[in-house]
Amino acid sequence: MFIKADILLLHCEIIKKMKKSLSIFTITLLSFFTSEAQINYDSLIHNLEDVTSRTKFKVYFKGLKYTKEYTYEDHFTDERFLRFHGVIVDDVVFDYSNWSNDRLSSLSLKLYDEVDDYNILLKKLTELYGDPVLKEEETTKRYVWSSSNTEIIMKIELIDGEFAKFNEFTIDF
Amino acid sequence: MKIKALLILLLIISACSKPDKYDLSQIKSLNDLSAVIDSMKNDNVEMDMTSVVKEITGKGMHYRGVPVKSMMVYDNAIRIYTDSAAYSGKKLLEQLETENGFGNYKEGYNNQPEFTWENDVKYSLLTVNFVDGKNLAKMGEKDFSTLYITFPKKYNVPLANIYKEVKKYEEEPNYLLRISHYGCDYEIKIDGIVIEKFYEKEYNKDSFSLNHFLLTKGSHKLQINIKPAHQKTRFKEAASFEAKIIDNSIDSIVSQKNIRRGHLYEKKSRKHSFDMTFNANIPYNNNGWFTGENLRKEPKLKEKVIHLYEKLGKAFLDKDEALISSLYYDMTLETKQSYYHNDFKSSSETCEELLKFKDKMYKYTVSKDFEIKYSDDGKLIYTTPAENDKQGMLTITGKGFSESFNYFMYQPKNTNELKIIRK
Q: Which of B16, B91, B93, B118 to probe by mutation at the A interface, max A CB count within 10 Å?
């Protein structure tokens, strides 16, 4: 008798689990047949190190939503699609030097204040462009990497000599 | 044995129809919402319907497969909360983007990301709430989302469907005139039509949209007439004037004129005029007043103006939605086309804006004493009441409000009535 009850309970558990799995399966199956294709988010990531002075903002971010706040500047603020050498970028501003927007003068990146991001960028930029020109003060450090066509400026704020937050990150063309 | 297995399978299928039964993404109107709530009541889903804002907390709700913890029900809206588990916040955002495309993104209150989508069925606002996630690129398992969906009121008049007639283009130029001056009164004319007059402002910066006065692609002439401010006989020494026509869609200056400080004073003239001719690369063609009669030759013009405003006032008073829609149709369509507004919300809001007066008003008055101003070709007119500058040609009055209306009018060829065409 007890054995039968145990078997019955076991059946109930199995049925419950099957119900749940089947329910999810049904929704997945329905979604598969009725809904639109899922967005491939990874393919939409924009690596800002590829931007040049000739990059047109609207062409670069075509298909994605962006905002326009100032006359000369274009903003893109969705961090899901912004990376700079693998580091997540919160917000990027494309600053154009003339009305026709045909020449980009600088990119300003807003980064998350993560010490890991700072270390990654310091290492990567030094690998690519060599040792930076460093200006160190009590509460700030300013790094400048120069190449033939760009100047990258990274300024950070320090607390007790350690990285606290990003103050500035710009790429001038 | 086979029959037993089949019975168990049937049992499972019937039982599993209850969990996740209510896909809230399928609610596309207030009627759909009522039907879903009725169905939930029949299934004894847990809910509190005693308050003004009703709350449903029972199991079985989802949005395109993402489990929903609870739903608040308002008069014409719902608010949906996801669970704080299983990446539901992220999943709901992704499902909404799959359903509606990328939404407009901004940082809302407390830096919480907010996304909006609008279509002719619903306006959706998604707020992402971070719990263990850091940002949208690093969302956590416990981050959840709240989705606020409003179901817009439906209007049963052609005016509400105007958005379907508006064409979109790859390039959509948007011409603006930007003025900055010191010590000048000025009048702006475009293609012979006075569109604005400004007086009594010592220092001013202003921006005027031009597209709705540009009927077709090609050359257009802007004329600016300047006088000394405050009805003075001479310009001040510091008087200056700058006008720029820009294509705001690409931030490009199309034409520019700058009268430097001192120039107007040195000329000792009482007025100054200049033209700016520019090429408008607009992709649309509006008929506007192009085929209109020359109204300078119209003997009963004053009566026709009064008749048109009386007709409009009576339409509001009689709550005649069809007539209101018809009187405003051409102007609304061409204005929306001029700015490429092909979204449902824009048409719906125009409808709302116009039709709201009819329910609140109790009388209307039409000015009988007014001055008629003609465009250079006589096809377009604008009237200004003589007796009281604060009143429009038509004034409708209701409890606690008074609203004035004044429009550009023309008379299509081979017709006998004026039509509203711009404001």
A: B16
